[in-house]
Write a structure and sequence with these properties.
Structural class: alpha+beta
Radius of gyration: 21 Å
Number of helices: 10
Order of helices and strands: HEEEHEEHEEHEHHEEHEHHEEEEHE
Shape: globular
CATH architecture of the domain at 2-8 and 162-301: 2-Layer Sandwich
Largest sheet: 8 strands, mixed
Helix content: 25-40%
Distance between the termini: 28 Å
CATH class of the domain at 2-8 and 162-301: Alpha Beta
CATH topology of the domain at 2-8 and 162-301: Pseudouridine synthase
Length: about 350
């Protein structure tokens, strides 16, 4: 079934090398948000660098709002970070009685403010360059030679840029609600269901291109994506220059984030995308009916600065991913994970 393939899609680098355990303790999963810009140094907001442990982003935002004396909706953050993790991320709060210096050291059992700077505006969602991860996987029995070979391939070729299963809710709960009347739901719940519907279609398209091997190469009709950026261009004909740039992970094929109208791709690529969409009529109709437009997302994820170390029966992986990417996409190409993976979209 197509939906099943989207939730448990095919791997690009072969079967997992061995089982692995995640999050035995929060410190096994470290993630640090990288904004890609500096604080303005002046303005009506304060940019806060916060370290949190075993707490979700929305809860931290409410705690910061309480300290600031503002509404939770006035607190800005660029992305959601994992709950069961040691995560460092940035927030903004409106200027208040607390000076930037007063904010430093504000803490609870779950969070601590590390830095505070004047800033010009509320931090919007998506306003980050990427995330750096340090992840310990326990119970690893694979030989070092096999791990080294697999990780070298991932560093060279990247991995399929799947949305993680957490995008679909616990045990796919958000998918079961796709047929509901969105008008009867609170805005937050509507957003989760629309995101799940779009992610399902994207994963299904990507699964098809992993199966035929075209997820990592450009062909006529593709919409190419510049690595780590929102820039795209149409591929009229594949040539050696584009192939070389693709091999360097400078550019990638993209897939549809479904919306109104036809996808902007062409030739075989558009035919494949429309064929998959035709097999998922309910989620496609849902996002189109909500007024969402066709957008694109890279089919491939470059895994930057990838390193690893062995410690007895565990290994520690370090790598950097662009915004909106899931560490799950990397880990599932190496291990069969036995953890209930609650990673948020980072």
């Amino acid at each position: 079934m197509l939906a099943d393939a989207a939730l448990a899609p095919p791997r690009a680098h072969g079967e997992p090398l061995c089982p692995g355990r995640l999050r035995t303790e929060p410190e096994d999963f470290l993630v640090e948000e990288q904004l890609g810009f500096e604080a303005a140094g002046a303005g009506q907001h304060v940019l806060l660098k916060v370290r949190k442990r075993n707490a979700n982003t929305q809860w931290i935002a409410r705690e910061l709002a309480r300290a600031c004396g503002c509404r939770p909706g006035d607190v800005g953050y660029a992305g959601l970070k994992d709950r069961r993790a040691l995560a460092t991320q940035w927030f903004t709060v409106p200027q208040s009685r607390l000076s930037p210096q007063d904010w430093i050291g504000v803490r609870s059992g779950e969070h601590e403010v590390l830095e505070a700077h004047r800033h010009s505006r509320k931090l919007p969602r998506g306003a980050l360059a990427g995330n750096r991860f340090v992840i310990r996987v326990r119970g690893v029995t694979a030989a070092d030679a096999s791990l080294a070979s697999r990780l070298a391939a991932i560093g060279t070729r990247g991995v399929p840029n799947y949305f993680g299963p957490q995008r679909f809710g616990r045990e796919g709960a958000n998918l079961e609600r796709i047929g509901e009347d969105l008008r009867a739901l609170p805005p937050g719940q509507r957003g989760f269901i629309l995101s799940a519907a779009r992610s399902l279609v994207f994963n299904a398209v990507l699964a098809e291109r992993v199966a035929d091997g075209s997820w990592e190469r450009l062909e006529a009709g593709d919409i190419a994506n510049l690595d780590g950026r929102a820039s795209h261009f149409r591929v009229e004909a594949a040539d050696e220059e584009l192939a070389a740039r693709c091999a360097r992970l400078d550019i990638h094929p993209s897939g549809p984030l479904w919306g109104r109208g036809a996808p902007p791709s062409g030739a075989r690529v558009q035919e494949l995308e429309q064929r998959v969409a035709a097999q998922l009529p309910v989620p496609c109709a849902l996002v189109a009916g909500a007024g969402m437009d066709q957008e694109r997302r890279s089919l491939r994820l470059a895994v930057r600065d990838l390193r690893w170390q062995r410690q007895a029966d565990s290994i520690t992986l370090e790598f950097r991913l662009s915004r909106g990417a899931y560490a799950t996409a990397v880990l599932r190409e190496i291990f069969a994970l036995d953890a209930d993976y609650d990673e948020s979209n980072t």
